[in-house]
Amino acid sequence: MSDTPPVNDRTSVISRMIKRKTHRKSCLGCTNCKRRRIKCDELKPSCTHCVQHKKNCEYIIDVSTPRSSHSFESSADRATAPDSSSQQEIAAPAVSESTAANLPHRLRDTAVTANDPIGTEDHTGFDARSITDLELLHNFINSTSHTLASLDSLETFWRVDVLDIGFSYHFVLHCVLAVSALHLRRFKRDRFEHYNALHERHWTLGLRQATALLPNITDDSRNALYIFSVMACFNVLGRGPQRGDFLVYGPDGISEWFVLFRGVKTIITPNMIETGPLAAMFRISSLKLRKFSEWEESNELKAIKTLRHMLKRNDNDAYFEMYKKTIDDLSRCYTMVLDSDDAQTTPKYSQAVFLWLYLLPDEYLVCIQELQPLALAIFAYFIVIFSKVPSTWVLDGWTYHLIEGTYFAMKPVDRSWIRWPMEQIGWIPPL
């Protein structure tokens, strides 16, 4: 007898197979149901079987393909980033270490346990990069911002107002984090390379985004670009002295720092000074700088008079008037910074030293780049009040670096011109 079923029976079997309800297989059941080899309804936080048996319901989370994200991104960053909208984030309790140890080897490596370190985005909500950026932001708010404020009244500006602008213009926020990374790099030497890499990343992103806005400056973006220019100065100075870089001159030309610093001139408008988010800062500064315009040559320090005698011996110089104005401005800054003729006194408003750099004529920059002795001598006298800026990590090492560079840039016969600045700073030539 043949084993082949009758045609009618085969039709009946096929009919039953067609009517059988299909279902999608899932591998996301809880560990208890998997161990008992029963179907899990995958309800969360506890499936039905675990509730009935009063078991601790635990799920395995696949973290083999974590998402890569930034704590903040510009629209340009997002445009070039891969689309992550299709990646589904699964929220579930972490498995215990004992449960993870009993899992098959292929699942054990991807199971998230309760003791996993912070940084796995799937179960903490943060990836390693966002945690690092939060560390930089925390450091800026609680520490770095205080070191950037020349006056107590400006601390809130750096700690609050600058960040408010940064959340609208991310290049400001990138620059804030870059400076914070430099600050941490300066003191956490065991993680120097780590913080240096963070600094380079944020500085590069911030500079790229800010540069893209320069051709089309608006009233709104003008404030953000001004803050970026100021922060960029802190960023460049905070890296520390670089070989051949003496701020206003060097073998490679004018320093990157000085170019950014002078660029502020093209951004400031009367409207910014009178209204807007930066008005308070400009108002405080203008009150402190009022003495600059009230200066009289008859009251200047003896050291500046010595500098004027040097100029008179070169009265045939084609740049005589330019040098005279430069010395006048330097004398004003000396009066603002020092209480008396003694250069060792406590500075009154040390940040005024940067005003002299801001006002330097273009002709002076040409002369000092050519290493003209009078231009170098004037700069050496500037270094004295530069050294009066309260000790801060941003300017660490710059004073000796500048006076040494100026000394060796001058011919031996002219070095006596800067004897007084060397004595005030306490720098001794190595030869």
Automatic annotation (TrEMBL):
Region (Disordered) location: 68-98
Domain of life: Eukaryota
Pfam families tied to this protein: Fungal_trans_2, Zn_clus
Domain named Zn(2)-C6 fungal-type: residues: 29-59
Keywords, in A-Z order: Nucleus
InterPro entries noted in UniProt: Fun_TF, Zn2-C6_fun-type_DNA-bd_sf, Zn2-C6_fungal_TF, Zn2Cys6_DnaBD
Name by which UniProt lists this protein: Zn(2)-C6 fungal-type domain-containing protein
Species lineage: Eukaryota, Fungi, Dikarya, Ascomycota, Pezizomycotina
